Amino acid sequence: MLILVFVIGGAVMLWILKYKVLLPGIKQKQTEEKLYHVVYFDQLTGLPNRLLFLKCIEDFVATAKENSGSIAILYLDINRFKIINDIEGYDAGDKFLRDLAEELPSCLGESMILGRLGEDEFGILMPKVKSEEEVLQLCDKIIAAINRDWKISNRNFNIAVCIGIAVYPQHGETALELLKNADAAMYYAKERGKNYYEFYKPALSSRTLNQVSMENSIIKAINREEFILYYQSQIRIVDNKVVGVEALIRWHSPEHGIIPPDKFIPFAEENGLIDFIDRWVMKTACLQSRRWQELNKKPIRISINVSSKQFEDPKFIEYVRNTIDETKAGPAWLEVEITESALMKYPEETIKILNELKSMGIKIALDDFGTGYSSLAYLKKFPIDKLKIDKSFIRDITQNKENEAIVKTIIDLSKSMGIKVVAEGVETKEQLEILRKLNCDEVQGYLFSKPVEGIVIEEALIGRVEN
Ligand code: C2E
Ligand code: CA
Ligand code: CA
After folding, report:
1. Cys-Cys crosslink for 166: which of 199, 200, 313, 369, Cβ 3.0 to 4.6 Å?
2. CA distance 300 to 155
3. Could you tell me which residue ranges the GGDEF domain spans (predicted)?
């Protein structure tokens, strides 16, 4: 099936080339082809991305079902990758990932598939598994290949890896379930130490000690009011004006200092505590918006990140409506940011909820565009006002012509659909100039400001009124 996908993909590309000169609508086709690549392949390593990897698992599960066969999913997590980024910078980190992506295939048998699943996470799909022994031999081979000194920018880094394994049909019946369970097994392997591998066991999905203590801490933090919202400005490129801010949560823990959201939001999403957090954020942002409306006749828009979980909750809309009534925040100054995965999970329900939010006057922004799997054409179905291009595309836009072309395509197509575009993670003037040239509407990033406390924004707002 995968071969079929590539054959069809190849045929489509040839067809597009053949008629390049003849067909007037060719530009649109080229952009769609580029988007196909963005949607299914990791742009850094050229490997299948999570979506294509999942599709491959799906196909092989279907075949295994027919033949009563077995397949295995290996979930690899590279230890110490962050250190490379921290010490040598992102370019060195990127180069290491590309080298690794080139080297790993030599460990793999025929018809196995390698994909990049996350920043430093890779997946391997073994389509025909005859014995457990065979899987373990592959794990040993991978560990031997990765666990050595890697020379990165003239420094040696000893890299290690942990591997989680899920086997069809024992550990899951669907692609998603298998990948999730391989991921859970990987965490277990990681807890044992470096260079371990672990098969999935049902007990693994019950929470580990670490998670339980994290859960308790989050509950305490809510009660002790340890959460705080920071705000990062969004700037309109044409006139350099701050037109909005994104609310970003921080946890001020008396024990551990400031904890960034990446460290607790995923846990909170797993155990349902995200509901409390999202509601607290919504209310705090509405109160802040109300205050800024009082201070300034023309306040600025606040964007709020909403977890995909809220789109499964029928009470979410009621909560938003009540909060807006209670706080008297003007909905026109609110924007909700949702991720592509939230859109895709329950598209029909999500469209309904988004339409209700829009009917209240709230704007909708699609976050982290490019990291998920929606195509722009598909987005037509959703009432989206704005699209935020993920920072991974912006990071090397000045050196990487391909990324520049992708960003241009996203901007051009979005504009043709009446959707505004914001670029995230803008850190340099050079990046800003390219985005200006490409007609991007707004930018957000350290070049202008890191996320700051509300009071800092407030002072700037008051300054704006007085001037
Ligand atoms: P996000 O929505 O993509 O937020 C943007 C992240 O990029 C923020 O990280 C921000 O500090 C960071 N960032 C901003 N400018 C730059 C830049 O120029 N360069 C780089 N390298 N990074 C930049 P943060 O605050 O750690 O948030 C991480 C993620 O946590 C957010 O990603 C969002 O998915 C989630 N999150 C944050 N606050 C909330 C919240 O209130 N509710 C929910 N549900 N999720 C939240
Ligand atoms: Ca966001
Ligand atoms: Ca984002």
Report:
1. 200
2. 47
3. 69-202
| Least confident residue range of 69-78, 132-141, 183-192, 333-342 | 183-192
Based on the domain organization, do 147 and 56 belong to the same domain? yes
Closest-lying ligand 1 atom to the alpha carbon of residue 426: 18
Nearest alpha carbon, ligand 1 atom 12: 425
Residues 235 and 165 in one domain: no
Question: Residues lining ligand 1, judged by CB closer than 6 Å?
Answer: 232, 247-249, 260-262, 265, 278, 281, 305, 307, 367-368, 391, 425-427, 445-446, 451
Output the CA 238–ligand 1 centroid distance in Å. Answer: 24
- Same domain as 267, residue 343: yes
Of all protein residues, the one whose alpha carbon is nearest to atom 33 of ligand 1 is 305
Reduce the DSSP state of residue 129 to 3 states and report it.
coil
Contact predicate 444/424, CB 8 Å = yes
Domain that holds residue 169: 50-201
**Half-sphere exposure for 52 (CA within 13 Å, toward CB):** 24
Which 8-state DSSP code applies to residue 41?
B
The predicted model scores a pTM of 0.63
Tens digit of pLDDT for each residue in 72-123? 999 999 987 877 887 888 899 999 999 999 999 999 988 999 999 988 999 9
pLDDT bin (cut points 50, 70, 90) of residue 22 is very low
